[in-house]
Amino acid sequence: MDRLDLLREAARKVLDSGQVEGVLALRADHGGTVPHLFHPGDDLSDLALWPKFPLPRTVDMLLSSHPEARLGIVVRGCDERGLIEMAKRHQVDLARLTLIGLACTAEEVAYCPCTRPYPNEIAVGEAVEGVEHVLAAEQARLSLAERMAFWRRQFAKCFKCYGCRNVCPQCFCEQCTLEDDLWVERGVLAPPFPSFHLIRALHTVGKCIGCHECELSCPADIPLTILYTLLRQDAQEMFGYEPGASLEDKPPLVVAGVT
Amino acid sequence: MDYRNVLTTCIYCGAGCSLYLQVLDGKVVGVLPAKQHPISEGRLCIKGWNAHAFIHHEDRLTRPLIRDNGAFREASWDEALTLIADRLREVRATHGPDAIGFLTSAKCTNEENYLLQKFARVVIGTNNVDHCARL
Ligand code: SF4
Ligand code: SF4
Ligand code: SF4
After folding, report:
1. Minimum CA distance residue for ligand 3 atom 2
2. Cβ pair A35:B37 closer than 8 A
3. What does DSSP assign to residue B61?
């Protein structure tokens, strides 16, 4: 059986368990994929794998609108880490979720690129080695002035679509600072440099789990994950904290009382 | 719980980005970009990300309004269309066809936009046709 058949079988088992109302996964649609809630008894032949979508955001919405419901969800490494960080901040109740862990393939890892391409509990697939974010490593070797020039050029392209924030599973504030006139004036492009992007970057410290969705959704092709990868490395070096690695580790900014 | 995504095309401009409307229990609650689309490739501008916002909005007009003595009142389609036809005829007779202009919309189909310019040129007799994307 290939990986997709195994995933279908795993999803079927969870659906048949009687424990959940449905399983959130991806469905093949018009040559791509889209999040979909499969119900017990549904045909799973159009359950799909790739391109990935950030499912934690969607499951949060479903659980919030149905406070009694319990759901299954297919999680890649980044999805599981995202849910763990969300749970630490009381965004999702993991007790209401049955996770179906999916390990990524080497091709998928290269596409992202990702250092930890598997969830803690793998139901389908086999863990492969993570890879380094080459562009982030290159950036780290530049001088401060060179980095400043690089980001000034990149962020000048930003036209404030808010896609990076909308898609990010770790951006869940009800009042977003990026919509506060004090920090970001309306009707002005590009947004203030570097505060617009640094506000979002700093707000995701200890939360960003490297799913790369922000960069994938950027119409201006800004390599946002260079910034987020370096911040994640800093948090790891300075505080020994790896977002999403375990439910027990306390995020440094939560310990400091900042978030 | 009924959650599904419906593929559609953004209604805000002519680029034609593709997006999914997220429908939860029969209500449109959000938008997801369509990653497979050859034009938008999983990206959207701020208008696309908010393309669902008007659907259930309380300010959305659901019936024609006619301004009487400075205030709007609800009217039937028949009454509204008759008033429009009468006024168009009147303005055209008094000031000529070029006193009238037509603004069409990205929220309509190609065919509907074609019909409107045809109406402007053939029925009214003016080339004053423009589009909401240039407003
Ligand atoms: S970010 Fe990592 S875990 Fe997530 S899909 Fe990419 S390779 Fe897999
Ligand atoms: S990679 Fe981007 S979208 Fe994903 S958690 Fe980090 S900041 Fe958010
Ligand atoms: S996705 Fe890109 S263009 Fe849109 S707000 Fe974020 S950085 Fe700017």
Report:
1. A218
2. no
3. -
Report the complex ipTM.
Answer: 0.92
Q: What are the percentages of helix, strand and coil residues in chain B, rounded to 5?
A: 35, 25, 40
Q: What is the pLDDT along chain B (135 residues), one digit of tens a residue?
A: 999 999 999 988 878 899 999 999 999 999 999 999 999 999 999 999 999 999 999 999 999 999 999 999 999 999 999 999 999 999 999 999 999 999 998 778 889 999 999 999 999 999 999 987 775
Q: In chain B, how many domains are there?
A: 3
Indicate if B104 and B131 belong to the same structural domain.
Answer: yes
Residue B15 lies in a domain: yes
Cβ distance B7 to A29 less than 8 Å, yes or no, reads yes
Q: Are residues B91 and B106 in the same domain?
A: no
Dist CA A116 CA B68 (whole Å): 66
- The reply to whether B90 falls in a domain is yes
Is the same domain home to B85 and B102? Answer: no
- B28 in the same domain as B7: yes
Domain carrying residue B103 = 97-135
Global pTM? 0.89
Q: Which atom of ligand 1 is nearest to A118's Cα?
A: 3
Query: Are B134 and B103 part of one and the same domain?
Result: yes
Residue B56 lies in a domain: no
Please report the atom of ligand 1 found closest to the CA of residue A112.
Answer: 6
